[in-house]
Amino acid sequence: MKILVLDSIPFMYPQGVSSLDEFMDFANKNFYMFIPMSELSMKNCVYPYFVEDDIFVRYVNLSLVKSFFEDDVEIISRLEYDERLEDLQEEICINCKHYFENFDGDNLEGHRDEMRLDGYCPNFTPLDSDGDDFDYDEDEEF
Predict the structure, then answer these.
(1) DSSP secondary structure letter of residue 12
(2) Start-end of H helices in 30-130
(3) Per-residue pLDDT reduced to its tens digit, 52-82
(4) CA 67 to CA 5: how far, in whole Å?
(5) What is the pTM of this model?
(6) How far is CA 18 from CA 21, 48, 80, 102, 124, in A?
(7) Phi, psi (deg, nearest 5) at residue 76
(8) Which of 52, 104, 110 has its CA nearest to residue 80?
């Protein structure tokens, strides 16, 4: 899905706007106004994957925006996000020396802000130093 990133903050396009050209026209017509826009929360998820349930409205003064660009992201439900993350956890995280299984609660806690849904984790460190038991391929798609 195409979104708009204003000063490094991801937003859905305003209603009736679906491209950068349309947004520029929209911005010129509403330049000195506060515009309600749907912000994609970056809590409990990792860019470019977002949780639909966590989108909220923020009023933006377009005259104060310094930069913007369009990007492609994936927006899914919390249930689907957690299911996909759990599948990755079972395949990748259990082979990481930083992994700690919480038998009393949510094993996804701490992973939601670290691991992308394509399997990349900046903190992944294999359990063994020679990599014999598990080979992590950063280019592999999950």
Answers:
(1) P
(2) 78-91
(3) 999 999 999 999 999 999 999 999 999 999 9
(4) 8
(5) 0.80
(6) 9, 18, 25, 43, 37
(7) -135, 170
(8) 52
